Amino acid sequence: MPRPELDAKLELLETRMDARVASIESKIDAFLASQAARDSAQGIRNSGFETAIQRLERSTAELKASLNTLKTTMIVTAISTVLAIVFGIASFNSALTSNMLAAFQAGRSSAGVEQRERPSPEPAPPVQAPSSAQ
Predict the structure, then answer these.
(1) Positive or negative CA dihedral for 54, 55, 58, 60?
(2) Where is this region: Disordered (predicted)?
């Protein structure tokens, strides 16, 4: 192959390769631009997720505080209920004892009144023996 033809073919190959390299470079630039757009969109999504996570953490903390308050309220209510039951039973026992004592005393005093109202048997006058002196 003569030298000028070889140079022309090489130039043509070089021109084609330059076009291919330029095409690949433009594709890479377009890909990098789309990647940058995706990265920025992902960053916006991530910031939205971070905000949502922070809101969930705050809600969780508020719920924990509310549950602690509820737990305290339930404990106080349980203790108050037990104390009310104990004091109620104690007052019932006291009232029952007081009523039983009053009934006993009333029975005792009525027995004393009945004894005072009954005439006590008077001693019989001594019987005198008949005298034989008559």
Answers:
(1) negative
(2) 107-134
| 43-74 pLDDT per residue, tens | 888 888 888 899 999 999 999 999 999 999 99
Buried b (16+ CB within 10 A) or exposed e, 105-134: eeeeeeeeeeeeeeeeeeeeeeeeeeeeee
Dihedral angle computed from the Cα positions of residues 98, 102, 104 and 105, in that order, rounded to the nearest 10 degrees: 130
Q: Is the model's pTM score more than 0.85?
A: no
DSSP codes, 22-82: HHHHHHHHHHHHHHHHHHHHHHHHHHHHHHHHHHHHHHHHHHHHHHHHHHHHHHHHHHHHH
What is the distance in angstroms between the CA of the first residue and the CA of the last residue of the chain?
206
Is 84 in a helix, a strand, or coil? helix
Token code pair at residue 33? 């631009």
